[in-house]
Amino acid sequence: MIKKKSIILATLLLMGISLPSIAQIGEQRNNFAIGINGGVNLNTVSFEINNAASSQSKIKQNMLMGITGGLTARYISEKYFAMICGLQVELNIAQKGWDELYETADGQKDLSRSYVRNMTYLEIPFLAHLAFGKDRGAQVFLNLGPQIGFLLSDSEDAEGWTNEQMNIQKEYGKKIENKFDYGIAGGLGLEIRTKKAGNFLLEGRYYFGLADFFGNTKKDPFARSANRTITIKLSYLFDLKK
Predict the structure, then answer these.
(1) CATH among 3.20.20.30, 2.40.160.20, 3.40.50.300, 3.80.10.10 for 2-241
(2) What is the pLDDT of residue 77?
(3) How far apart are CA 139 and CA 34, in angstroms?
(4) In a 3-state reduction of DSSP, which class is residue 210?
(5) Quick one: signal sequence residues (predicted)?
(6) What is the pLDDT of residue 31?
(7) Residue 214: strand, helix, or coil
(8) Domain residues of the chain, as ranges?
(9) If residue 206 lies in a helix (H) or strand (E), which one and from where to where?
(10) Is pLDDT of 209 > 60?
């Protein structure tokens, strides 16, 4: 895991170095746009059980659906050959968490019990924006960069469990110990740019969380507890400066 984090951070560092270099030799642009975004989150949590501290088995999950939305600001600084280069930052409210999956002895879904943890975050992604296409018309784009988040609220909804059973599941009733979240976000999308009506974007994005929201020491029940999110969103941007 440490090696994987190092590779990801090194990639981001190289991107940060290469983008200014491109800016020095590319065709200069000066386009600043702002707007709104909204969409759907499909969230799971990457759990790793600490066997030294817990006898709990693997946590199976359904995808938990939530909403996301907020503000977007984007600055396009240059065009290098066919590639349009810029930076994008967002301020979003996002619903995350997890929905546990239970099965009967014959492998069927057990509908007699459920557990859902709902977590709401304030999220700020800082993204490199790379696009290919026409200044007016269709563009295909890639967004990639770090993202941070702050937990605003969380709640749990459990049904069909006795107190004894809930004591076995260590995540039940457990407080969130780390409210600061961070990770890597990346997405692909299509943008339609118009002259008067603004710019319309459709994007599919994946967030790979690097922070654990539960404690992860040897005495804690979980060695890993990080968000994994698939987001499908629509954005509308209008140009302030061209």
Answers:
(1) 2.40.160.20
(2) 83
(3) 17
(4) coil
(5) 1-23
(6) 87
(7) coil
(8) 2-241
(9) strand 199-209
(10) yes
Q: What is the pLDDT of residue 23?
A: 42
Give residue 9's identity as a one-letter amino acid code.
L
Please name the residue ranges forming H helices in the chain: 2-25, 163-168
Please classify residue 51 by burial: count the beta carbons closer than 10 Å to its beta carbon, then call 0-12 exposed, 13-18 middle and 19+ buried: exposed
Q: How confident is residue 22, by pLDDT bands cut at 50, 70 and 90? A: very low
Determine the pLDDT at residue 218: 86
Lookup: tokens for 52: 């030294």
Whether the pLDDT of residue 208 is over 80: the answer is yes
DSSP annotation of 176: P
Structure confidence at residue 21 (pLDDT): 45
Question: Which of helix, strand or coil describes residue 26?
Answer: coil
**Spatial CA neighbour of 121 closest among 49, 33, 183, 202:** 183
Helix (H, G, I), strand (E, B) or coil at 16: helix
pLDDT greater than 80 at residue 79: no
Residues contacting residue 101 through CB under 8 Å, at least 6 positions apart: 60, 61, 62, 109
- Is 173 exposed, middle or buried, given 0-12, 13-18 or 19+ CB atoms closer than 10 A? exposed
Angle at 207 between CA 144 and CA 158, to 5 degrees: 165
Give the SS3 label for residue 178.
coil
Of 227, 224, 226, 217, the closest CA to residue 48 belongs to: 224
**Euclidean distance between CA atoms 108 and 131, whole angstroms:** 45
Q: Read off the pLDDT of each residue in 32-47 and give the average, rounded to a whole number.
A: 96
